[in-house]
Specification:
There is one protein chain. By secondary structure, the protein is of the alpha/beta class. Helices cover 36% and strands 22% of the residues. The chain has a six-stranded mixed sheet with strand order 5-6-7-3-8-9, with helices on both faces. Helix 3 packs across helix 4. The protein is globular and about 50 Å long. The structure holds adenosine-5'-triphosphate. Adenosine-5'-triphosphate binds next to helix 1.
Length: 258
């Protein structure tokens, strides 16, 4: 059974339709990335999955007792507030030193326990948010533009950490990102959202889909290939070559264009 399943889900904000007839499921251990232009409903989609928003039509089902870890798009911390990482991880629920340290290590931030939150770099801050999401030992980890503001090497390192987490913890990962060239290489499946699911499939397939190209142009595919090439050299667990790309085959394998 899927961890979360959306069937015919539509969502309105006030009277405005934001999501229309969305069908989606994520299984254990999968990494799924949502891409889409600004205002296309990505955050609304994630908030519906978490249960923070109710669909106006359709149904959301979750595996019983599902544990979800959520890394938000932004988190503002009052710069005048003295708050170190250890105390931050105990908000709102107190956690042990051992649990806090373990979560930080899983997030690649094992040295940050005593640091002030407001003194962290952008990349360190995101890793602490990730550690906080890991405290519940999630079966599904959800990240909303988690690398906003990081430079490209910082983003690439962050997403490699995500892949490592999937290997170590076996959790499924659902993330939103604009950084297609970095994120797509780490994803099993990419969904292109623009109020509805325009197209979905393996990263290379979506990158060549007409619906995707209409929204994002054609420029990202070269960057994707470049990233994948570099990525393979630094990680010998992946296959060491790129697969020849045939747009016609790719399009044939896409599901659900509307
Ligand atoms: N709480 C709200 N009340 C009213 N309208 C909202 C609310 N939240 C979002 N919207 C509207 O719903 C639409 C989709 O917003 P959403 O934040 O889901 O898009 P997004 O794809 O995540 O955007 P971005 O890439 O800019 O973060 C937008 O038009 C937005 O203005």
């Amino acid at each position: 059974m899927s961890l979360v399943k959306l069937t015919g889900v539509s969502v309105r904000h006030n009277a405005n339709p934001v999501l229309h007839n969305v069908n989606f499921a994520i299984d254990r251990g999968e990494i799924v990335t949502i891409v889409g232009p600004n205002g296309s409903g990505k955050s609304t989609f994630l908030r519906t999955i978490i249960g923070a928003l109710r669909p106006t039509l359709g149904a959301v089902s979750r595996a019983q007792g599902l544990r979800i870890g959520y890394v938000p798009q932004k988190l503002h911390i009052d710069p005048t507030l003295p708050l170190n990482v250890r105390r931050f991880l105990s908000l709102p629920h107190s956690v042990s030193d051992a649990a806090a340290q373990k979560a930080l290590e899983q997030a690649g931030a094992g040295q940050l326990m005593k640091r002030q939150m407001t003194k962290l770099s952008g990349g360190q801050f995101q890793r602490v948010l990730l550690a906080r999401a890991l405290l519940c030992n999630p079966q599904l980890l959800i990240l909303d533009e988690a690398t906003q503001g990081l430079d490209q090497p910082g983003s690439a390192a962050f997403y490699q950490q995500i892949e490592q987490l999937r290997r170590d913890l076996g959790c499924a990962i659902l993330m939103v990102s604009h950084e297609l060239h970095v994120v797509m290489a780490a994803s099993d499946r990419v969904i292109c959202l623009n109020g509805h699911i325009c197209c979905e499939g393996a990263p290379e397939h979506v990158a060549s889909a007409p619906e995707y190209r209409a929204l994002f142009g054609t420029g990202t595919q070269g960057a994707l290939a470049l990233y994948r090439h570099e990525h393979n050299h630094s990680h010998d667990h992946r296959c060491g070559h790129d697969h020849a790309h045939d747009p016609q085959t790719a399009n044939a394998e896409l599901t659900g264009p509307h």
